[in-house]
Amino acid sequence: MIERTLAIVKPDGVDRGLVGTVIARFEAAGLRVVALKMVRLDAPAAGGFYDVHRARPFFPSLVSFMTSGAIVPMVLEGEDAIARVRGLMGATDPAKADAGTIRRDFASSIERNVVHGSDSAATADFEIACFFSALEIRTR
Ligand code: IDP
Ligand code: MG
């Protein structure tokens, strides 16, 4: 099924000049960039985006990290885009990520792991709407 998903190059990826590398991996896998921007989140916005993790011990540090610099959110479209982006990213902890994944190749820790990707269709709908209006997403 053709899906849309939200991916983000996190502040560590932007700071280290990995925006192009991350996008190139998605495009090389056949995913199409249909929306893209650079933004900087404040703490309420980052907390809202990661609301599902609010009770986790790493939440304050995660919000601090995600507000520490610019991020590059994008909407990717393609066949099975949600699962395929997750596969290209690799496991949350880079030490557990498969060889050849973005996190295995570039992440510096379980927190500073370069990239975000939606984990389900419902999450993708919510997360896309956090960053893009309908008219900001390319149709044809
Ligand atoms: P995901 O990004 O692979 O979907 P989630 O469990 O949804 O992983 O966690 C969201 C983000 O929170 C992770 O990408 C990472 O930046 C951070 N994170 C997750 N687990 C930990 C942890 O145990 N310690 C520190 N940061 C974590
Ligand atoms: Mg997640």
Helix/strand-derived category reads alpha+beta
Amino-to-carboxy terminus distance: 17 Å
Low-confidence spans: pLDDT under 50, at least 5 residues? none
In CATH terms, the superfamily is: Nucleoside diphosphate kinase-like domain
Major sheet attributes: 4 strands, antiparallel
Q: Helical percent range?
A: 25-40%
Tally of separate domains? 1
- Mind telling me the CATH class? Alpha Beta
CATH overall fold name: Alpha-Beta Plaits
Ligands bound to this protein structure: inosine-5'-diphosphate, magnesium ion
Second rung of CATH, namely the architecture: 2-Layer Sandwich
Overall, the morphology is: globular
Strand tally is 4
Mean pLDDT: 98
- Number of separate helices: 7
Global Rg: 14 Å
Series of secondary-structure elements, N-terminal to C-terminal? EHHEHHEHHEH
* Strands in their spatial order, largest beta sheet: 2-3-1-4
What share of the residues does DSSP label as strand, in percent? 15-25%
